[in-house]
Amino acid sequence: MRTSRWLALLAAIVVIATLAVALGTVQLSLGGVWDALLGEGDPLARTVVRDLRLPRVALGLLVGAGLGMSGAALQGTMRNALAEPYLLGVSGGAAVGAVLALAAALPFALVPVAAFAGALVAVALALAVARAGGSAGDPRVLLMAGVVVGAFANAVIMIALAGDAPNTVRNALWWMMGSVATATWRDVAWLAAYVLAAGALLVAWGRQVDVLALGVENAAALGLDAERASRRLYLLAAMLAASTVAVAGLVGFVGLVVPHVARALGAQRHRATIVASAMAGAALVVAADLAARTVRPPAELPLGAVTAIVGVPFFLSQLRRIA
Amino acid sequence: MIAFREVSVRYPRAAADVLRDVSLEAPRGRITAIVGPNGSGKSTLVRALIGRQPLRAGTVTIDGRPIEALGRRDVATRVAVVTQREEPAFPIDVPEYVRLGRFPHLGTWRSPDAGDRAAVERALSLAGVTALASRRIDTLSGGEWQRVRLARALAQGGDALVLDEPTTFLDVGHEMAVFELLSHLAHRERLAVLLVSHQLNLVARFADTMVLLHRGAVVAAGAPGEIMQGPVLEMVYDWPVVIARDPAVGAPTLVPLRGRVPR
After folding, report:
1. In terms of residue numbers, what domain contains A192?
2. β-strands B241-245, B57-62: how paired?
3. Interface pTM (ipTM) of the complex?
4. How far does the CA of residue B126 sit from the closest CA of chain A (Å)?
């Protein structure tokens, strides 16, 4: 990928994040944002910027980066241009884990762990269902399995949260449609730790994804233990997806769309594809969240609904290409 | 040199061995061709070599060392395998693709150095695909793609090259180009070339040694003139044949006869 395109991605992130901090019910000028960042100027603007919008933007960046890297790793490892954590049911499984952990009143630090466990169960289920279908290699069979696992997960979430009084825990809709509206710096710190750690490992193992993308036999001929390498990469992809779900619920289609953007920008090796997907995902989620809260004020659209509006037509166009 | 010694392989839950006491050698500087009907175990041999098929008995050695002792990556630096099929999931440029051949040398952490880049350049040139360097792999013709795959295998830099049906789907010209390239690699570059092929007549012209597999066992091995014999080929392929001498090039040529109703 050419340097100019990396810079363009970086510029897109900066512009979108700046707009996301400035725009909203309280409109701020760039100067106002700058003053607030420095702790000067209007106290209302300071609160809006530092306590509300900045953590929300930071969380959106991290959610997008995590989902983008997860999607890039899954697409390469599974050799499936339609793979992504939401459509494979991985995110749904993670949401079930997180919901059950919160219902059991586990400490907040353990919520991502429970989400991770749920995500692993989901990815194992989806792969098992696809194998039972006889052709785990067929991308459409795997997706069908994932969608079924995801639907099951949604049912579990609805049942688990059906009896709860409103506003005691995050409700079923919050989990199923995704949101970064309640972002706190604590969420940001937790997610940053998971996304940076898992993302760094994923980038390090990017060469293995390159080789796996040639197919299992060819990977073996190049000296890679393909099964072990795939399992490790699924673990990391599931961890990335699970940690985003634990703090933001289900945000679909980001992991599907952004690896295609990365490849269209010229990323060929998976190290580049993964990093570019992180950047494009970050920009996409912050832009989607900005749209979610500015399109129909004062109402806020669910973040997952906005990404689905973008993602579903893209999914259909890709499906036509492989069919 | 690649050597199989009394190798037996049995698939899980199968009643019989798919390979029985197979011994063969592929020395440097020669083309060794494995031929035999569908299901005779040819591809299983290749899978055993890359560690995808556990052995029930026997050993596979590379330069005298068993593959288990070498480990997967070490094997891949010594033997390059061009598998039967390959459909890359994402289109990339030809040089990027050929660079993947350096994976066994680089592993996860090492950065490519001048040696790696030289190996890639040499592989592109040996396979005759330097001119394709600006192309993407999804724009290549079948013949170009097979040569680019060969380049990736050559970039692995080993002394041995294993190819499973490298000319399936290729027309006569491209098929000949691949065989001539293999001949050059074996006889000029002194690689050990082990070839699995259905093209008996071409193999008889190019190979130094032919190994005839039937139901998982070696039924004959030797120079093409010794293997291209009517009775044994009729038995193995279960079809009436005659062996003629090609009037133009003098090589033994198998001619399957007509007149039998297929079973």
Report:
1. 3-74+85-322
2. unpaired
3. 0.91
4. 19
